[in-house]
Amino acid sequence: xxxxxxxxxxxxxxxxxxxxxxxxxxxxxxxxxxxxxxxxxxxxxxxxxxxxxxxxxxxxxxxxxxxxxxxxxxxxxxxxxxxxxxxxxxxxxxxxxxxxxxxxxxxxxxxxxxxxxxxxxxxxxxxxxxxxxxxxxxxxxxxxxxxxxxxxxxxxxxxxxxxxxxxxxxxxxxxxxxxxxxxxxxxxxxxxxxxxxxxxxxxxxxxxxxxxxxxxxxxxxxxxxxxxxxxxxxxxxxxxxxxxxxxxxxxxxxxxxxxxxxxxxxxxxxxxxxxxxxxxxxxxxxxxxxxxxxxxxxxxxxxxxxxxxxxxxxxxxxxxxxxxxxxxxxxxxxxxxxxxxxxxxxxxxxxxxxxxxxxxxxxxxxxxxxxxxxxxxxxxxxxxxxxxxxxxxxxxxxxxxxxxxxxxxxxxxxxxxxxxxxxxxxxxxxxxxxxxxxxxxxxxxxxxxxxxxxxxxxxxxxxxxxxxxxxxxxxxxxxxxxxxxxxxxxxxxxxxxxxxxxxxxxxxxxxxxxxxxxxxxxxxxxxxxxxxxxxxxxxxxxxxxxxxxxxxxxxxxxxxxxxxxxxxxxxxx
Length: 573
Fold this sequence. Notes:
The longest helix is centred in the middle third of the chain and has 6 residues, at 231-236. The relative contact order is 0.14. This protein folds into three domains: 8-22 and 30-246, Immunoglobulin-like (Sandwich); 270-419, Cupredoxins -  blue copper proteins (Immunoglobulin-like), CATH 2.60.40; 441-572, Immunoglobulin-like (Sandwich). The two termini are 26 Å apart. It contains six helices and 34 strands. The radius of gyration is 22 Å and the shape is globular. Strands 10, 11, 12, 13, 15, 17, 18 and 20 form an eight-stranded mixed β-sheet that branches. Strands 23, 24, 26, 28, 29, 30 and 32 form a seven-stranded mixed β-sheet that branches. Strands 1-14-22-21-16-19 form a six-stranded mixed β-sheet, with no helix packed on it. By secondary structure, it is mainly beta.
């Protein structure tokens, strides 16, 4: 049964789509990012205390019970989950750039009382479970683009369904603000992140596999709002942040004495960036058209919520984690000198949060919406005072997708080498990173196959000719099973970055116009976003392990997602 909703869900339908002019000029290189990020601090207790079932009387939204909570809460050394607390909130005085007026954004609080975009960065570790309580303190009487309900998806943690941020599980501060797949409204929701590896049931207890299959470990994850029909405007307003996950191999400690540790550059020289395309009106205020199914790509790029910011770096190696936070634009990023006449190589470590089997040497990073890339740049090769720029050379005049690479590109971030490090750089990049689980030809041959076609229908976006329905499961898989999914884009004019929740997959093959094409080296590891270019298809091997429940698959061009290019699929016992 449909639940009555407030504010923009009703008021937006009465408002004509805004006229979207080009954004006015900005003043570059005036905003400075912090020299290091500040991880979110855990709390000693949550009041009320977390419960397995939703604590409805205390104001928690009506989620399903936490799966395997007692079992998985005891796997950490402390014997209990670490506790974190955040709130989705409006910050009325955010500065994107000095040329624009301070204005409201939606973000998350954590270490500070004011919301920020991106929100606080969480540091987590496999084998140490977590409860993250997220309050909704957005203004429930909001009018304008976006909606003040939230459901937070941690992309792409191996998470029980009730904590995955399913699009219909949204909640708000007002009792009428609840999603149709929740049993009751509430002001907060406790997310149980067990931080186990996929394959826990298959491998747990075997020597070397204490928390599941270490070949399945992720590193760079991000959280963002996933409210059905309003993901694009809510994320566009700022509701996203990073979740960095470590294990014995990628330990987050470049001085780790464990001989198995990679000792990659680590905090405070481990720095995540979220790139988002935005557009502003003639007065420099953020605008968004949430009605047009085609969407309008932004002509300004924010890096961690700022337009044309500066990061001051030391002369040493840095791990730089890049995320395309959408909503619509693709990027091809280069590191260039001040004159734009030289591009510099770097070491490519990870794609979609997954370390590659071996590092690659490259001079560009291409990112569809929601794709991530970890790279290592050694700033020690540059003298003090050197200025470098991250530029995007991928042209995208409309929301169909990228067209061509064009020099010199648009500068989006400036690096200033301004100091020597206080201690010698002991970090390294080994020749081998994280091994892949070998493909089993017999498993692939025996796996059931499904075909998903991402297409235009009646001016909207559809999957296999149908629009998204939160109640309708389009596929059911047995827990512990594996399948081969074929993802198909029959259109020769649009690109679709397809995201499958819950588990990563391995691309088995790709075609364009029916002819085989090579899988690029950086896509030969595990992935959770699969970019379908015009007239392309691919096959991916997926496993469905350890938990049951409802999960989505969707185009991560967030405008396409909000206009129904999404399905629900369920894992059953």
